[in-house]
Amino acid sequence: MRIVAGKYRGKKLFTPKNDSVRPTSERAREALFNILNSRLSSDYSDFDLLDIFAGTGAFGFEGLSRGVKSVTFVDINTELVKKNAALFADDKDKINIIKANAANLPRSLRQYNFVFSDAPYDKGLSSKALMELAQKEWLADGALCVVEVRNTENLELPKGFEQIDERIYGQAKVLFLKYEIR
Known about the structure:
Elements: H1 26-39, E1 48-52, H2 58-65, E2 70-75, H3 79-85, E3 95-99, E4 112-117, H4 125-135, E5 139-150, E6 161-169, E7 172-179
Parallel strand pairs: 1-2, 1-4, 2-3, 4-5
Antiparallel strand pairs: 5-7, 6-7
C-alpha cells in the first residue's frame, strides 16, 4: 500500500499482517480524491481532516500528501497509524493521533471540516460515529463527510446530514455527506 499522489507520492505504508484492518485501496483512494477535487471550493490547505476508524491511516496520509492543513486520526488501536505517522516526520506538526472509540467519542476541543469514516462493515458503527461527531461538536458547519460502508449496507443519516453523492467500488459503497448545524 502506497500514497497515490502529492508530496509523498509513492511512499509505502505499513499494512496489517492479518485482516484485522481493511485499508481503503489505492484505486479507491485515487477515485475518491478525484471526486473531491471536483467538489471542493478550494485546495486542500483549507481543510482539517478527521480520519475516524483510521486503521493504517491511508486516507488521512493521502490527504496530508495532497496538502491538508492538518490530519487527526481516531481509532481504538493506534499501533499501525503511529507506525505510519513516523514516516511523515517533515509534517509531524500536522498529525494528531487519538486513541478512542469513534462510536463513543469524548467532546471535541476543535472542529473539523473534512471527515473520512471507514468503520468495520455491517456493525452499524458508521451511523453511531456520525451521531457522536455531531453531538459532541467535532464537526464544523458545512463539513464534508466521506463515509465508506459495504455496498449492501444502509446508512441511517443522523439529523444534520445530507447525502450529496454515492459511489460503488467493488464491495464498498462511498457516501458523500454534507453536515449543517441546525
